[in-house]
Amino acid sequence: MHAALARSERMQDGPVIVDNREALVYLLSEAAEIEHGLMCCYLYAAWSLRREAPEWSEAQHAAVARWRGELVGVAREEMVHLALVSNLLNAIGGAAHLTRPNFPVWEGYHPTGVTLKLTPFDRATMDHFVFLERPENATDADGDGFDPGAFFPRPLPAGRLVPTAQDFATVGHLYRGIADGLAALCAKLGPQALFIGDPALQLDARDLGLADVVRVVDLSSARAALDIIVTQGEGLQQCDGHSHYRRFVSVRDEFVRCSGEDPRFVAAWPCAVNPVMRAPGNPRERVHVVLEPAASLLDLANALYALSLRTLAALMSPHGVDPAPRAALARLTADSMRWLSPLAERLAELPANDAHPGVHAGMTFTMSRSLRMVPDRDAALLGLAEACDLIADRARSLADAAPGVLPGLGAAMRGHCESLHALAQPPRTAPRAPTDNASATLASVKAATLNAAQPRAAPAPKQAEGFCGGAHRADATAQDAPSAPLVQSARGSGVDIHFESRRCIHARHCVLGAPRVFLANTPGEWIVPDAMPAEELVAVARACPSGAITYTRHDGGAEESAPEVNTLRVREDGPLALLAALRIAGEAPRLRATLCRCGQSANKPFCDGSHATAGFRASGERPTISADPLPQRDGTLDVRPTRNGPLDVRGNLEICTGTGRTVLRTVAAKLCRCGHSGDKPFCDGSHARVGFVADGE
């Protein structure tokens, strides 16, 4: 039996002890570091896989794409686990823990069986991933080269107030101890005394587009969060086919078969084991990336990674409680993570150091010592805006190093910079006047920064096949008008899928109806049209109520056509969903759209999901007015937002409840979009009373 496995088995029955809140915070913080580290390791292996090779067969090409999808999919779930652990920490009065040691993690920092280092995709790496994700009853051996070489016991002395590291055999063993500790402390202290965190700091599925992120406010929801982590792969006594463990076993075994059938088959670039940005004090198992353009691209990628962590920290702090900054921080977190993928894949193609011939570079995920929560909200937003601006400038200066990536990254970061500047408030005067020289200086710096923040037109990004420039993620501004949207496209063998994020309301028909096509919150390329049959995929695309997802066919199949009956469905506590041959506010014709009726959208007249964060409440089941048939039920539907007033709709239209019951068949209607009408969904003039302001005709 492998030495590391034998050592871990000696720790199998040892209890994980939780005597007090500090011990629980300590264990959750280590869990956060492990989830964070695993996510990075899985992404590094995924990004090392080549996109194509002339010598590959069609079957080999499909297999590599499948392995990449599985690795990125598991990494995405590790992000879910990190968010859940952060919720657990916030719930018990701790704080989200996003720091971790740099790679490779030194021996003894985690239990002996948890060795974390950056390695490219190969048999040993996949054996290691299987070993890390093994359930408590498994006997899998670790991969070659991952044995730490020594046993580092971490016993907990009895009766200590100061928490310290403890031994656990598997990640599941750790979470079992955390679950037992939570229950014991809840019984000892009482639920009100244990769960003292602010519920407003909790993340949920809407914030990051991660379906399994749940809020933690009591023992029941804490157990639910831990169950999600464990059932996705860490520690199940019986792992199903969707667990991390089984998915990695499947990838490894298929890779072994492919390599056995064709010994010349090479799936991955020869990326470094543990690349580093700085000359290492201990060069063993480290490769210093010094050659250009890899060194400069690595610096840029790590700056983007640091920005994503700082933004996530702000999102999980009091700065992310109010709807507007919360939405902006969530968009920036997702966008910065997504742009890492094409940068990291480009790094994998580039040589790293002449002293290591044939070895390529790779993402290092270098941690910053300055990853901390800035107390002042405006200072935090302005600091993030400045980081976006610096990344945008560097992306522009390095554009030739990755022409299909960097112009789009620069445009996206410029948009985020301007959005954050717009959210930061001018320095306050009375009653919060500066009381000393230091605060006076801060106020003057903020004022100067805000005054100097004149919007700059972003260069039009060059789009590479499979992903877009990203500027569509900026808030709607004059230069980002609906008449000229930037759309992300992914080409398939029979159907091309197009995604316009500004239209997305997270109805989730795509990720639930076609989860292998739409890999939500995945860094880089996340739409895989060929993962399901064309006709089924087309049906899922047509189910998108907002029109964020459209398609183009080149397999001879029919394109989407206007419906035989124009309909408007009133969504419960949400927007107005239209299906018709639409003309909206002078835009190009479209067939599907969701329009804001809460008054809070930053992308009016379209919904942007603000109704959820604003707590908008409005029934979708109002009484029937008239169901008299119309002479004609189809045709063009003209939707005109009036200035500071309702939506003026002209054309044949059947207005329905969310459950499909007809409310009114009409050829003209004025629909509330201020959120205050007492006759929703129809306008009753409340927009004038409440001072509603919105562009229109």
From TrEMBL:
InterPro entries: CISD, Divergent_4Fe-4S_mono-cluster, Ferritin-like, FeS-contain_CDGSH-typ, MitoNEET_CISD, VioB/RebD_dom. Gene3D superfamilies: 1.20.1260.10, CDGSH iron-sulfur domain, mitoNEET-type. Residues 618-644 are annotated as: Disordered. GO terms for molecular function: 2 iron, 2 sulfur cluster binding; metal ion binding. Keywords: 2Fe-2S, Iron, Iron-sulfur, Metal-binding. GO terms for cellular component: cytoplasm. Residues 581-617, 660-693 form the Iron-binding zinc finger CDGSH type domain. This is CDGSH-type Zn-finger protein/uncharacterized Fe-S cluster protein YjdI. It comes from Chiayiivirga flava.
